[in-house]
Amino acid sequence: MTDLRPSTHWEDVEEGEELPVVRNSANQTQLLTFSAITWNPHRIHYERDYALSEGHADVIVHGPLQGAWLSQYVTDWIGPLGRMKRLKWQNRGSALVGETVTFRGWVRRKYEQDGEHLVDVEVVEENSEGRVIMPGEFTASLPTRSG
Length: 147
What we know:
Elements: E1 22-24, H1 28-37, H2 48-53, H3 63-78, E2 83-89, E3 101-113, E4 116-126, E5 132-141
Antiparallel strand pairs: 1-3, 2-5, 3-4, 4-5
C-alpha cells in the first residue's frame, strides 16, 4: 500500500513558520483500552468517581497517550519521506476525558548538518482553556525536492 500523505520538503519550510493546528480528544473507551494495553491499573484513567476522590476534575488522559498523539502530530507533518531525529516533551498538566486538546508547532531553526536538511521545531499541547499542558521540541530531517 502506498502512503498518500504528502511529505514536507526542505525548500517549503521557513523559520518562524507555524505548523498546521491539530485537535484531538479521548473518550472513556479509548482511555480504558489504553490502560489495558499498557498494563496501567491506575483508576484515575478510567473511573470518574475515583478520579474525583483523588482531587481531579474528571478522568485523566494518560501522559504517554498524549505523548503518542504528539509523536503522531510530528510524523504527520514530516510525512513519509522525512525522518524524526529527536523528540522530547514534558507533561505539565492534565487533559481530561472528552476535552479537546490542541497541538501547535513553530519552526525555530532550519539548517544543514552532515549532509542532512534539518529543522528544529517547538511544539505544544494546549488544554481547552488554551493553557500549555505539554511543551516539547523535535528535530527532523526533511527530504529535498531534488532528491
